[in-house]
Amino acid sequence: MELRKKIDTIDEKFVLLLKDRIDLCKRIGEIKKQNGLSVKDFQREDAVYVHIMAKALESELDPQKVEAIFKQIIALSVSVQGAE
């Protein structure tokens, strides 16, 4: 079915974008370690949530559900930086 193929293509793009994000987070984690900074940055996390929820609203998506997805993405990002 053509629609399912399109969904598969979008899912593959999500995975590639997630990999790009994780690669950047690893680099940021290295910089934080070199400078003795904490892996967790609660202000940054809050700013991401505010930004993403606003984008969700603009896109007519449920902001709370999008935030829930990003909480998982951020948890993964923090874990690759060396903290859980």
Protein described:
- This protein is mainly alpha-helical and 84 residues long.
- Helix content is 81%, strand content 0%.
- It is built from 3 helices and no strands.
- The relative contact order is 0.13.
- The model has no long low-confidence stretch (mean pLDDT 94).
Observed structural traits:
single chain, 84 residues, mainly alpha, Chorismate Mutase Domain, subunit A, 3 helices
CATH architectural designation = Up-down Bundle
Largest sheet report: none
What level of helicity do the residues show? over 70%
Question: For the record, what CATH class applies?
Answer: Mainly Alpha
Assign the structural class, choosing from mainly alpha, mainly beta, alpha/beta, alpha+beta, or little secondary structure.
mainly alpha
Content of β-strand: under 5%
CATH superfamily: Chorismate mutase
Strand element count: 0
| CATH fold node name | Chorismate Mutase Domain, subunit A
Radius of gyration: 15 Å
3D shape: flat
Low-confidence stretches: none
How many structurally independent domains? 1
Mean pLDDT: 94
